[in-house]
Specification:
Layout lengths: L2 E6 L6 H14 L3 E7 L13 H10 L4 E5 L1 H4 L3 H14 L4 E6 L5 H12 L1 H12 L5 H13 L11 H16 L4 E6 L18 H9 L13 H14 L5 H20 L9 H11 L3 H6 L8 H13 L3 H5 L7 E7 H10 L7 E2 L8 H16 L7 H4 L3 E3 L1
Parallel strand pairs: 1-2, 1-4, 2-3, 4-5, 6-7, 6-8
Antiparallel strand pairs: 3-6
Family: Belongs to the TmcAL family.
Subcellular location: Cytoplasm
Organism: Planococcus wigleyi
Length: about 400
């Protein structure tokens, strides 16, 4: 059996995600689709809208065959490390190809961009260093350096676009890993990454869907943008928790944590740099909402996403020391499978490069224990009394 891999968040699973999964299967000719999905906290430094089990249900009910968890250390990382973790898992589980959605819509520009930056690696790093010294954000410095090398060339990927950036890092990760996995991309259609919902368009961004809900729309009112199975899973999750995940929901606990730790301890947490711990601490003293809090901290140098990742690590207790202790995924955590997915695991078990773990009790290494801890912190933020849900929830099966 051939498998195509996709790296996802499904926050929540919508019609654009369904299109991606269907096209990945079609373009690759694979028998099954494997999704490496973020757990309870996400790449933009946010708690997931719905927990990983609800999102696994959405994926399986929409035709995904295997859902495996992208560990916390990669799921909450900047783009290069997010890609590194996802590609390592897809390679380990035996995917012959991986497919990502992009604004570019063709794979050749990504291959050309990767070759260009590989051939001019030293010059690229020097340009980045010089740009950062001017006080601009690191993502902006990367883009400026890249544009300097590309010049007027038209056969390269546009790395100002969020999905293109991730796609480039997927290729880069596969090359560094020495993997033979084949890269594929499909054109992203419908709404852009951060676009609000537009009436009449069947595909909305996950950001737009979440924003609409938090502004008062019910789950049912968003049904035009998601498969019916996603609506059913979200309604079940809403009944279980009484709400959906957001920083506003988590802010009282985050604020308590920041004030308890103080600046000297805040700087021990991953991604907290350049003295920003003092501003975080002082802002928590005055801001009574998350939006007010982050508005006091963000700047051209410290983007909202970068700050949110810091805050995620502060909230979960993830330190620089822990971050630097991990080099690669140590296991494959199985969250759910279809009948075809189960057949694939049975047929490929001798070729899978990492242990496949189906229950939390089997996660005895530091990376696995971190995932268990992150889930407990997520459930606490959601007001759940079932803090051992990680241990009582088996992989979800759809026969």
């Amino acid at each position: 059996m051939e498998a195509v891999g996709i790296i996802v968040e499904y926050n929540p699973f919508h019609n654009g995600h369904l299109h991606h999964a269907q096209q990945a299967r079609k373009e690759s000719g694979a028998d099954i689709v494997i999704a490496a999905m973020s757990g309870q906290f996400l790449q933009r430094g946010e708690p997931a809208f719905a927990d990983k089990w609800a999102r696994t249900e959405m994926a399986l009910d929409a035709g995904i065959d295997l859902v495996i968890e992208l560990p916390y250390v990669y799921a909450t990382a900047q783009a290069a490390d997010f890609a590194k973790g996802g590609i390592a898992l897809l390679d380990a589980i035996g995917c012959s190809s991986f497919c990502f959605g992009s604004e570019q819509g063709a794979i050749e520009p990504f291959l050309n961009s990767h070759q260009l930056l590989t051939e001019h690696a030293m010059a690229y790093q020097q340009l980045i260093h010089e740009a950062v010294q001017t006080g601009i954000s690191y993502p902006k410095a990367l883009n400026n350096a890249y544009l300097s090398l590309v010049g007027n060339g038209t056969d390269f990927a546009d790395l100002t676009q969020p999905n293109n950036i991730l796609g480039f890092h997927y290729l880069e990760a596969a090359q560094k890993l020495g993997s033979s996995i084949t890269p594929l991309t499909i054109q992203r259609i419908g709404a852009n990454y951060h676009d609000p919902i537009q009436a009449g368009l069947p595909i909305a961004s996950a950001t737009g869907i979440r924003d609409a809900f938090f502004k008062g729309d019910s789950v049912e009112e968003l049904s035009a943008y998601m498969p019916k199975t996603s609506i059913a899973s979200l309604k079940k999750a809403e009944k279980e928790y009484g709400s959906f995940g957001s920083w506003e929901q988590f802010y009282p606990l985050l604020r308590f944590t920041v004030l308890r730790e103080g600046p000297e301890r805040l700087k021990l947490y991953a991604e907290v740099t350049e003295g920003i711990e003092n501003l975080i601490y002082q802002s928590a003293k005055t801001a009574d909402s998350f939006e007010a809090f982050i508005s006091l901290i963000k700047s051209k140098r410290f983007t909202r996403t970068r700050i949110q990742r810091m805050l995620t690590h502060i909230y979960t207790g993830f330190t620089w020391q822990l971050l630097r202790s991990f080099e690669a995924p140590a296991y494959i955590r199985l969250l759910g499978m279809s009948e075809a997915g189960r057949s694939y695991l049975n047929l490929q078990k001798k070729n899978i490069k990492l242990p496949v773990v189906s229950r939390a009790a089997e996660l005895n290494d530091p990376m696995g224990k971190l995932d268990i801890h992150a889930t407990a912190m997520y459930l606490q933020g959601m007001g759940s009394t079932e803090l051992k849900k990680e241990f009582t929830t088996p992989p979800i099966y759809r026969g």
